[in-house]
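> example.struct
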C-alpha cells in the first residue's frame, strides 16, 4: 500500500510540480488549491501526510491546520516561503508537525515525509498494542 499525500497550496504550478515529484517517489498524491477543500479531502481521503502552504486566499495554513486538528492527528508538514522563527513557532503551536522553507530540495522533502510516516505508524502501532492489552486485561478480570 502506497503512502497517500495531500498537497494543499493555492499555486497550481506548485501542486502540479509536487504531484509529479512525489509520484516519482512512489507516493499516491491528491492535490487541491483551496484550504476549505483541503479540510474536506483530509476528512474524506484520510491521507498519511498533509503538505500545507501557509499563505492562501480562502483560508490560511493556520486555519486549515487548526480545522484538521479538530478531527485528525494526521501529520501536517508546512511548506512556506516565509522564513521567520515566530511564524514557524506559531504554526507548530497551531498543530503542525513539521515546517520546511520553500524551495525545498526534493530529497529533503521526501525524507521528511518518510520520517513523519514512520513516526505516525509507530504511534498507531503503540496505540493498537495498548488497546489490545487493555482488552486482554479486562477479559482476565472477568470471573
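> example.seq
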Amino acid at each position: 500500500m502506497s503512502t497517500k499525500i495531500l498537497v494543499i497550496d493555492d499555486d497550481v504550478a506548485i501542486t502540479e510540480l509536487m504531484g509529479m515529484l512525489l509520484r516519482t517517489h512512489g507516493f499516491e498524491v491528491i492535490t487541491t488549491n483551496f484550504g476549505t477543500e483541503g479540510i474536506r479531502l483530509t476528512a474524506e481521503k484520510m491521507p498519511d501526510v498533509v503538505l500545507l502552504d501557509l499563505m492562501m486566499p480562502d483560508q490560511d495554513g493556520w486555519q486549515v491546520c487548526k480545522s484538521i486538528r479538530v478531527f485528525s492527528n494526521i501529520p501536517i508538514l508546512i511548506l512556506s516561503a516565509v522564513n521567520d522563527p515566530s511564524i514557524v513557532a506559531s504554526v507548530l503551536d497551531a498543530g503542525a508537525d513539521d515546517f520546511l522553507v520553500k524551495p525545498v530540495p526534493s530529497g529533503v522533502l521526501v525524507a521528511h515525509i518518510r520520517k513523519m510516516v514512520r513516526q505516525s505508524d509507530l504511534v498507531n502501532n503503540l496505540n493498537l498494542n495498548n488497546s489490545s492489552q487493555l482488552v486482554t486485561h479486562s477479559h482476565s478480570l472477568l470471573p
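> remarks
The mean pLDDT is 89.
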